[in-house]
Design brief:
The complex is a heterodimer of chains A (279) and B (271). With 279 residues, chain A is of the alpha/beta class. Chain A is built from ten helices and ten strands. Classes of the chains: A alpha/beta (279), B mainly alpha (271).
């Protein structure tokens, strides 16, 4: 099944021309219950991609695989040219910033402390575990919060921040990591539309400045049309549409989502059983 | 059966997990078990309970009024009880936090977790009074034995509570932190502690309250504190003095409850 793409893979793995390359990716939490059924994607460096699709389509699972949080039972995934399916060296993990749906901020720490956590990849020794961070990193974390308009909230515990403020802290933490790819799982879905637009505008701006590749799960077609440059629609574990973001209209999306599913080909070889590492 | 009748029937059985008749039967069954157990213990022998009531009345007559003359004598022992409870709880806490972390599946591999949990269960198996006897054998009579006994007992319970607490931490936070490259030491320092500090302290206070009560009986086996006097007054039938001891313990327990309630209100409810 993957043989026609073999030459492409080899080229990619030596000279990365795609930031994220997914080839025939299958995934199941339980044997036989496929969540992803042969997903293929090719996101160019600097791309700002949106992934849309109904709940349960596998969007979060795809994100978690790209973030290196789940095993890859079948298919190939290259991140910046490195084969994720063969295990990613820890150095590479830093290149990918992942913002989970509920943001994953530590509520009992301040905004600044949460942002500083992004520096742990560079300083993973005992000194940081005891609370000693290099002055330069602290200043950088503060500058990132300031750039996102949160300078005054730096010392505030996250539990006391509003939803939009938390979103920005999560972005600052990810930027602190100095990633080349940002994966964000529906991270504006808790905000109202104008606020979500504000956050996304800022993310796009910061991504452009730094030449980052961004992949977002989004629900709102207006946000996709306004901010993304490319959109892929995931439905029942398969990509059913891919185009420039502006080319996907609301009626077209509805038609895609409401269309009856195609019969899915079952993989021939018995696949490995994927195990959720959290379980 | 029409739609309306069906709906009626459904409404009639709302709130019964197993259906009304089965649950009623279950309730009756439980009452029968209770009655059988009490019968075996002699609860229904009228003469025994009556005699018991008379004994109690005589005992109560001798207990009052309390003999307050012994207050200076028992004051030191009461202070010792308080010191034992404080030291034992804090000493136990020092070991409970790391052991709790070792016992949480979200942080450590299954083998480590199993070993830590086995240790907790083994410590919990031994009741506090037996720990006191053991410690008296190990370090001799006195408050050191009581303190160590309370420390062991505390570890058995707090470590278990903490392990459950740590496992309840939102996995997304741990995932996000692992994603930025945090090591286990960072997870403990920057996720476990800040995410659970309130509950950790709240349970520590609860343990302290509990240990104050528990420490009062440790003196029965010579492990220090006010229990020594309880034992003496009980065995010499000096019930008026025993009353004084019990009243001072009550006062101590109430004072500690009040103090910990104040700490909770002041520091724990507003993170």
């Amino acid at each position: 099944m993957t043989s026609p793409f073999l030459s492409v893979h080899e080229e990619i793995s030596s000279a990365p021309e795609a930031a994220v390359m997914v080839e025939d990716l299958w995934f199941a939490y339980r044997p036989g219950a496929w969540i992803l059924k042969g997903v293929s994607l090719r996101v160019p460096p600097g791309g700002f991609w949106a992934i849309m699709g109904p709940s349960g389509a596998g969007k979060t699972t795809l994100m978690r695989i790209l973030a290196g949080l789940l095993p890859i039972p079948r298919g190939r995934v290259f991140l910046l040219g490195h084969p994720l399916h063969e295990g990613l060296p820890p150095v590479m993990r830093r290149m990918v910033g992942y913002i989970p749906q509920q943001l994953g901020l530590v509520r009992g720490l301040t905004a600044l402390e949460n942002v500083l956590m992004g520096a742990l990849a560079r300083h993973d020794g005992w000194r940081t575990a005891l609370g000693f961070f290099p002055r330069a990193e602290i200043e950088r974390a503060y500058a990132l919060l300031a750039a996102l308009g949160l300078a005054e909230k730096a010392g505030e515990k996250v539990i006391r921040l509003s939803g939009g403020e938390r979103q920005r802290v999560a972005i600052a933490r990810t930027l602190m990591q100095d990633p080349q790819v940002i994966l964000a799982d529906e991270f504006v879905s808790d905000l109202d539309l104008p606020r979500a637009a504000q956050v996304l505008a800022r993310v796009r701006e910061l991504a452009r400045e730094r030449g980052l590749t961004v992949i977002l799960n989004l629900h709102e077609i207006q946000l996709v049309q306004e901010f993304a440059d490319h959109v892929a629609v995931l439905k029942e574990g398969r990509i059913v549409h891919e185009s420039a973001a502006a080319a996907l209209s609301w009626p077209a999306l509805r038609e895609l989502i409401e269309a009856p599913p195609e019969p899915s080909p079952v993989p021939a070889a018995p696949p490995l059983i994927a195990v959720d590492p959290r379980a | 059966m029409g739609m309306k009748a069906e709906r009626m029937e459904r409404r009639m059985t709302v709130g019964w997990a197993l259906g009304p008749w089965r649950e009623f039967g279950l309730g009756l069954g439980m009452l029968a078990v209770l009655a059988a157990l009490l019968y075996r213990m002699g609860f229904f022998e009228a003469g025994r309970l009556l005699q018991g009531g008379l004994n109690l009345a005589r005992f109560a007559r001798e207990m009052f009024p309390p003999d307050l003359g012994i207050l200076p004598t028992i004051g030191g022992a009461l202070l010792e009880t308080l010191e034992m409870a404080l030291a034992g709880t804090l000493l136990g806490f020092l070991f409970s936090f790391p052991l709790g972390a070792l016992g949480s599946r979200t942080l450590f591999p299954a083998a480590v977790v199993a070993a830590a949990r086995l240790l907790m269960a083994a410590i919990r198996t031994v009741p506090s009074l037996l720990w006191a006897v053991l410690m008296v054998i190990v370090v001799g009579l006195g408050p050191l034995a009581g303190t160590l006994a309370l420390a062991f007992y505390t570890v058995g319970y707090l470590a278990k509570l903490y392990a459950e607490l740590f496992e309840g931490i939102d996995p997304e936070i741990l995932e996000a932190m692992r994603g930025v490259g945090a090591k286990r030491r960072h997870l403990i320092r920057y996720v476990l502690w800040p995410e659970s500090a309130n509950a950790v302290l709240s349970q520590l206070l609860f343990m302290l309250e509990y240990n104050i009560r528990a420490s009062t009986v440790l003196g029965l086996v010579g492990a220090g504190g006010i229990g020594f006097y309880m034992q003496i007054y009980l065995s010499t039938m000096a019930y008026a003095r025993l009353t004084t001891v019990l009243l001072t313990v009550l006062f101590l327990v109430l004072a500690m409850d009040g103090l910990s309630a104040w700490i909770r209100r002041r520091y724990l409810l507003n993170p």
